[in-house]
TrEMBL record:
Residues 222-265 are annotated as: Disordered. This is Methyltransferase type 11 domain-containing protein. Residues 249-265 have a biased composition (Polar residues). Residues 44-140 form the Methyltransferase type domain. InterPro entries: Methyltransf_11, SAM-dependent_MTases_sf. It comes from Haloarcula amylolytica JCM 13557. It holds the Pfam family Methyltransf_11. It comes from the Archaea. One of its GO terms (molecular function) is S-adenosylmethionine-dependent methyltransferase activity.
Length: 312
């Protein structure tokens, strides 16, 4: 979720943890497959975040190639510099996607994963991407349609309020399914479109677990539990609290559970589908901590459309 989000050090570490999960690793592998970097290629990583992407591409292009990563966040770039330090073929700089510090037609390929959904002007940023690609160069652009985000919950109305509030965390929460005309408008030719679904059936250090914490913090801070909503604009470290808090609790039918995130004791409730284990009722709904539960576990499913494009 690099984009134009501003991060402090703790928030950057939280994002780093998300990008370390198996689902995120698999997505990066799929992205590389789409544009197939080769030794000697020059590649631009837009919204490079904590540096996994430029480092992994750097190993592929080798010393004869070059990977240039940009990100707006200083905290993210600090993590990226540490990760890419052994790779002289990787350079990093602070910059914005809508004003790329890169010469015209100077890169063979460009990658932007969940960046454009966080920008106010998608078209200007895509025009910049097209500008820096060499003729015949390729790009992979992945953005989410957050309406595809699915979580198991026995309280669908409350869940809908939470996800509705989360839509406000970026300017274009549906961009993943609406990106094609923007790409064509920038003069890019779409070679293929592929969905990437992330499905987790447990909360053991998974993409869903980290995303759930991210959504909980945001929705709680923006009164998703039924109070007056307001539009905060793109999320920054200034308009998001550093720690989250539970904002809704189910009725207790069993024991209590102390949330490791908040230190608050909240009740647990019996499984909604009458399984024998219990669910922790913190955050925005009963959260299943039973790793093998594929029926009622909170399962984050985010369909992120990957567009492989070519320059003119």
């Amino acid at each position: 979720m690099g984009g134009t989000l501003d991060y402090d050090e703790a928030e950057a570490r939280q994002e780093e943890a998300i990008y370390s999960t198996p689902a995120a690793v698999a997505r990066r592998e799929r992205v590389r497959d789409l544009f197939a970097p080769e030794p000697g290629d020059k590649v631009l990583s837009i919204g490079c975040g904590p540096g996994f992407e430029p480092a992994e591409i750097g190993w592929t292009v080798g010393n004869a190639g070059h990977v240039h990563g940009i990100d707006r966040s200083k905290a993210m770039l600090e993590l990226a510099r540490a990760r890419c330090a052994p790779l002289p073929q990787v350079t990093l700089a602070q910059g914005n996607a809508d004003d790329l510090p890169v010469a015209d037609g100077s890169v063979d390929a460009a990658v932007a994963v969940q960046v454009f959904e966080y920008l106010e002007s998608v078209d200007s940023a895509l025009s910049e991407l097209a500008r820096v690609l060499r003729p015949g160069g390729s790009a992979v652009v992945c953005d989410a349609d957050f309406s595809s985000l699915v979580w198991r919950s026995p309280n669908p109305e409350r869940m809908a309020r939470v996800l509705d509030a989360f839509d406000d965390h970026c300017p274009h929460p549906r961009l993943g399914s609406r990106l094609a005309p923007h790409l064509r408008g920038a003069g890019l030719t779409i070679d293929r479109v592929e969905p990437n679904a992330i499905v987790n059936t447990s909360l053991d250090d998974t993409f869903a677990a980290h995303l759930m914490a991210f959504i909980e913090d945001y929705a709680a801070d923006h009164e998703a539990s039924g109070q007056q909503r307001h539009r905060p604009g793109p999320m920054t470290s200034e308009n998001r609290r550093p720690t989250g808090r539970p904002f809704s609790v189910s009725r207790s039918t069993a024991t209590s559970f102390t949330s490791p995130r908040s230190g608050l004791s909240v009740p647990t409730t019996d499984c909604a589908v009458a399984l024998t284990h219990t669910h922790n009722s913190i955050g925005f709904g009963p959260i299943c901590r039973y790793p093998q539960c594929e029926v009622c576990t909170s399962s984050g499913t985010s369909v992120i459309s990957g567009y492989r494009t070519t320059g003119g």
